[in-house]
Amino acid sequence: xxxGIDPALTAELLMVLMxxxxxxxxxxxxxxxxxxxxxADTTHGRVIDxxxxxxxxxxxxxxxxxPLDTFVPAPVKRMQVVGxxxxxxxxxxxxxxxxxxxxxxxxxxxxxxxFDFYAAARRSFAVVRTSDWGPYGCFILRKGVVEQPV
Length: 150
Description:
Blueprint: H1 11-19, E1 25-29, H2 35-39, E2 47-50, H3 55-63, E3 76-79, H4 90-103, E4 109-112, H5 114-122, E5 126-130, E6 138-142
Helix pairs in contact: 3-4
């Protein structure tokens, strides 16, 4: 254990967060997502499991260390509900609340069609799978810049 670091963050995830650069994407998903097959195409190449964490808990832990990109209109992407693209399901509502609280401001989230989301997910740096059941609990977070303290 380390002081000041959320205990939900594993050593592997901390290494990935440190390795990511500005503009790199991190896929955070539920247990229904095809995490292993998508992770095989990412930079990291394998799934990081956060057993026992739901999506808002995992997202809050990650965002306690990783800034979201402020150079893009929507630094977070989510999967659209198939057949009802404007619908926002409960896990997405809860994640939006967590995002806004973590950033201290409203965070824009772009909704992608299912297969467009899978394609974007394959371009991610890494895949983090939570114990959340979802459904549609999949988000891509774009890393921002950590500014040097003055």
